[in-house]
Amino acid sequence: MLKGEKVGLRARYEEDIPILRTELYDDVEGGSRAESRPWRPISPSSKDRRLHVDDSVAEHVPFSIVELAGDTLIGTANLWGIDTHNRTAHIGLGLLPSARGKGYGSDVVAVLCHYGFVVRGLQRLQIETLADNYAMLRAAERNGFVREGVLRKSAWVMGEFLDEVLLGLLAHEWKARS
After folding, report:
1. Is the four-CA dihedral 79, 82, 86, 87 of positive or negative sign?
2. I want to staple 88 with a disulfide (CB 3.0 to 4.6 A). Which of 5, 115, 124, 174 is the partner?
């Protein structure tokens, strides 16, 4: 398990899947905001890659997020789009509604940075988030991510196009902060 101050990132357990399905992926609005594709229901028997881990896919590393104080599942995090040639990857996370607003997001981003830069030896991490996702923007900026641009009206979410913010962090910038 990778540990931060408040959270741990561990492998996805089978018992995590019903909780994540119900509290994260069955939420139409939340799912529409988190995914770059239209929301669709996930059947209990589905082996959907957002929930079930396929260890043969090297470009995607999913984690379950647990609160260290009680070993309680509070969400999901991942490094995705891992490019081993250019040594880059993207960061993503989703917190259960009951875990939001408690400072876990910043800690999750910090642990993902450690994993990406130290464990994986990456050069660059990137986050794309909706411009009105203030919690993710704060979590990224608290960890040293720099706003690199705005992708104007690039995300179709619940009947409208929204802007996305692109943030990046380089390994030497992260190391200078550590």
Report:
1. positive
2. 124
